[in-house]
Amino acid sequence: STPITYNKIWTNAQKDLDTQLQTEREQFLQPEKDRVKAFRMLSASYIKYLQIFHHLEEAHSHLIHQQKQAAIRQVLDGVIGRILEVKKEMVELENSEFHYTDNIIEDLKLLPQLLIPEDTEIPIPKYFIKENLEGLQKREKTLDEILLNAGLETQKPVKAMTFEEAIKMIQVAERARQGRRRALFMKQIYLEEKRKRHTKLQEQTGPNPDDAATCIQKVWRGYIQRKKTEKMREEEMIFLGMVSGAQEGALQGEVQGRHEEEFIKEQLRETEGLDIRETLQDQISQCFIECRHIIGRFPDYPAKEAGGSMAIFSQKTPEQVLPYCHSFNSKEAIGEINDFYKFSPLFSLFWKTAVWQNRDEGRDFLQDHDPELIKAEKREEDSNNVHCLLMPLARRTIDSLYRELAEGGVLIKAKPVNLSDYVGEYSYLGTTLHQVDVEPMPSLADIRQLIALYGILPLGSQTVHEKAPLVKALLLAGPTGVGKKMLVHAICTETGANLFNLSPSNITRKYPGKNGLQMMLHMVLKVAKQLQPSVVWIGDTEKTFYKAVPKAEEQMNPKRLEKILPKFLKALKAEDRVLLVGTTSRPFDAKIKPFCKVYQKIILIPRPDYASRFVLWKHAITQRGGEITKLLSISCLAKLSDGFTQGCIVRAVQAVLSELRLLQMVRKPLCTAEFLTPLASQDPVYNEEEETFKVMLGAVLTGCVFSSPTVWAYLTWGSAHSADALACMDK
């Protein structure tokens, strides 16, 4: 595809976004009393934003023009933030983290009814990793060296070769060596013969100055013409959409853009610096005069720690300004503020996109930088520099803290797994069951969506994390083997986040005493903020909130973090891309009140249903190298594995598909019966155990014990009603 194609995708997405925003202004202008209709409106908006998200992400990841990428990035962050806002409204309206919108998808005619609704899958923007790829690779290499030197990680053992493989490798290397030697020998013979012919010719004719000049002219003109031809070919290839030409143009444009930015920045400082300073001084004076008119006196000048005069120009909502005016008992001030129109902060992200809407770029093959846009950005940057002073970093280097935490096993290496590796199918009957008052079991695709919404998207974008609804802590609860730890590692992989392990079993005897614990958390917090994004993981987190510590675990002191965790979360601000993630398979062992107070979002991960088991069996077998034939019934395996978790299925596949069995597969295809014995040797999640889990977890979330159907409805709420749960418990 050519840049024109992705420009068109961007333009259409922007039009869809404008249409959607206008539709929301019209639909949400008046309160809606019908909850069902209100939810349908929110669901339609949610799906529309997801469609726009898909298109913007596609355009952003393929366009090479850096200024266009920056403009799309602003809109993309705004759309992600809007998705999270709509999701919050849907949760509050339905009192549930899980929503079933297959009927909405059918109404919008996104895909035929029986196909997978891929339009509702949340994409992971590539720029989360791409923009900081070099730094992430360097950090990973440093962590590997630290762990290797500390003896916490060993080098991967070299796989031994067979005798035949060793002979073949030696033969290939020797033949290659002989070929190189022969080529060098023939080159020497050719150069010697050429030198002799040239010497003989000079002896016969003698040197001619005109011939030498002609030779030089011929070489120079040939060089110039080749350069022109290469440039013409490059422009033609870019015009035709050839990938290699576009990539070369992108690299040249990036280097040229950096030089242009530096040159224009210096030029602006010389020519417009004084004007900018005078303009800002006039604006500050006008601001102080208006404040005096409203509150009756001049306001205090902001301190340097508060941002200096930059704090005067920061945008504030009426709610932020109202307490300030109350302190002066100014009725006039309060009246004026109440008359303000409250714009959504996300709308400001769309303003700069109009720059590119009406431009004719038919001849802009090289996709160069626009100097005027660079000037506008540098003017704004210089204005900010007038207000703000950069705070110097502490001399206790982050590298030393990073190394200490890694050597102590608190900072660990995340496993390279993606969210897409968490295989699971959609719930096709969700709305149908809802209509007959039956609460459907959440699907694994629903879990995947929640992890993307509450974990990956906010951590991946600074703008989204600061402006979207803030989630500081996330709890993943479910039976052993449903993939809770895998999801934690997937969050880190998709966002390039550091992973800190504060599980009770991991911090035993580390940093002993109250002071040691405070120092450890201070170090974790400092490194996590400085090298954000970061994930702080607490495995078996119910142990931190034990009702009664078992005697066998008393020496481990599992409740060390109970009182300090709320303070840890309080220290995290909207600008800190740090997420606390807890995992538990026994939430009923924890005390209810502190447990729900720490974890803002609680997601129950169920065992896989039939559709997810079918997809998982097929994926696990093919990924391991197995081949599915008529002798292997995936449908039969999916039915027989009812009650087993994803971990049980994966272990059964690994037990069967050994290296020897894979070699035998050509003459002995896989059959269904082979997987039954290793599957039967594992413990499933029995119905009685699952019912007990539901009831007990329902008690954790609500503070009361209900019958199973009601409890499941409470379970799907997540922690949307944690306040109600605590109130119920207090009663």
Automatic annotation (TrEMBL):
The keyword ATP-binding applies. The keyword Transmembrane helix does not apply. GO terms for molecular function: ATP binding; ATP hydrolysis activity. PROSITE patterns: IQ. Pfam families: AAA, IQ. SUPFAM superfamilies: P-loop containing nucleoside triphosphate hydrolases. Keywords: ATP-binding, Nucleotide-binding. Residues 474-589 form the ATPase AAA-type core domain. Gene3D superfamilies: 1.10.8.60, 1.20.5.190, P-loop containing nucleotide triphosphate hydrolases. InterPro entries: ATPase_AAA_core, IQ_motif_EF-hand-BS, N-DRC_Component, P-loop_NTPase. This is IQ motif containing with AAA domain 1. It comes from Meleagris gallopavo.
